[in-house]
């Protein structure tokens, strides 16, 4: 961005700043362009959104407000149109659609939305509705009952996935996404298809993809937590996750013997398994492509050294801590 005073290119800068929303104060990493000659600060629409998203994310976390993707997920699992879900909840249709588009619900409305995530509570709300006809009530209740039965049948598989990724709610350590095992699995499949990386490099590719996405949008792709260990940032519980994916046929592992005597694990695309791009947004797919382009010729040892330049690793490695996604705003490697 050029300065309107001097027409010189301005540098992007950040500083910690407190911002107020609904009478609550939130500490964020404020992004702006600064004119070195005049000292004036400027923002763009994109930077305003980045700054405000930090505020909104913290507000949602503080008051347990569901994120837009969660609101949409709850509605879609019942096969409802937005107009019908708003009717069941007792909201105006425009109000409900605004929630799905990113408008912040009140705390009381947020609790109602979260309540119907439970099929049993959803059935109660449908039965209480005074506007739905009996035919629709029966259909919606039957759908909720099917979901209850499916949950009972899949409880073991759900428990395994929760164990692997954790059942954490969206917060700064998940990149304000609920952990999404399907998306994370597809990210692994994608990098295996494009680069066939060794395991250590795979861990760094996943880290940079999630953290780059957060740097741009204040949201990660997968909702996975990353931990700092001696070889750089890694997905929490990565070894067990990869073993599960191999066992389920999501990926293959080739074992490579090196002259030095150690064995490397190379991730290979399963020839019978296609990458499912439909679960990603266009922006997320562009981010995955960008990470591939940046690191396609980078060796495993080099990407480890690059990750060791990151404050995300340096500030957390000694105690092997989970890494806050706020470090994404300070990625040292030029992206």
TrEMBL record:
<dbReference type="GO" id="GO:0003677">
    <property type="term" value="F:DNA binding"/>
</dbReference>
<dbReference type="InterPro" id="IPR025272">
    <property type="entry name" value="SocA_Panacea"/>
</dbReference>
<protein>
    <submittedName>
        <fullName>Putative zinc finger/helix-turn-helix protein, YgiT family</fullName>
    </submittedName>
</protein>
<dbReference type="InterPro" id="IPR001387">
    <property type="entry name" value="Cro/C1-type_HTH"/>
</dbReference>
<dbReference type="InterPro" id="IPR022452">
    <property type="entry name" value="MqsA"/>
</dbReference>
<feature type="domain" description="Antitoxin SocA-like Panacea">
    <location>
        <begin position="203"/>
        <end position="314"/>
    </location>
</feature>
<dbReference type="Pfam" id="PF13274">
    <property type="entry name" value="SocA_Panacea"/>
</dbReference>
<dbReference type="InterPro" id="IPR010982">
    <property type="entry name" value="Lambda_DNA-bd_dom_sf"/>
</dbReference>
<dbReference type="Pfam" id="PF15731">
    <property type="entry name" value="MqsA_antitoxin"/>
</dbReference>
<dbReference type="InterPro" id="IPR032758">
    <property type="entry name" value="MqsA/HigA-2"/>
</dbReference>
């Amino acid at each position: 961005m050029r300065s309107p005073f001097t027409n010189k290119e301005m540098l992007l800068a950040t500083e910690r700043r407190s911002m107020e929303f609904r009478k609550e104060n939130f500490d964020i990493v404020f992004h702006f362009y600064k004119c070195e000659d005049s000292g004036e600060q400027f923002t763009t629409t994109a930077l305003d959104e980045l700054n405000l998203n930090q505020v909104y994310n913290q507000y949602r976390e503080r008051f347990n407000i569901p994120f837009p993707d969660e609101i949409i997920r709850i509605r879609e699992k019942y096969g409802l149109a937005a107009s019908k879900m708003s009717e069941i909840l007792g909201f105006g249709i425009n109000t409900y659609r605004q929630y799905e588009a990113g408008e912040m619900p009140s705390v009381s409305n947020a609790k109602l939305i979260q309540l119907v995530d439970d099929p049993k509570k959803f059935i109660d709300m449908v039965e209480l509705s005074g506007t739905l006809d009996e035919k629709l009530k029966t259909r919606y209740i039957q759908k909720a009952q099917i979901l209850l039965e499916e949950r009972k049948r899949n409880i073991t598989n759900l428990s395994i996935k929760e164990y692997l990724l954790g059942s954490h709610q969206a917060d700064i350590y998940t990149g304000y996404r609920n952990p999404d095992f399907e998306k994370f699995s597809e990210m692994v499949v994608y990098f295996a298809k494009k680069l066939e990386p060794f395991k250590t490099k795979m861990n760094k590719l996943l880290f940079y993809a999630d953290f780059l996405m957060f740097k741009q949008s204040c949201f990660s792709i997968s909702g996975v937590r990353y931990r700092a260990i001696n070889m750089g940032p890694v997905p929490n519980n990565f070894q067990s996750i990869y073993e599960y994916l191999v066992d389920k046929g999501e990926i293959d592992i080739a074992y490579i013997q090196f002259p030095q005597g150690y064995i490397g694990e190379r991730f290979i695309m399963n020839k019978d398994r296609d990458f499912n791009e439909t679960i990603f947004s266009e922006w997320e797919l562009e981010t995955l492509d960008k990470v591939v382009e940046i690191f396609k010729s980078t060796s495993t040892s080099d990407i480890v050294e690059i990750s060791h330049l990151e404050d995300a690793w340096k500030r957390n490695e000694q105690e092997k801590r989970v890494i806050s996604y706020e470090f994404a705003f300070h990625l040292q490697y030029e992206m």
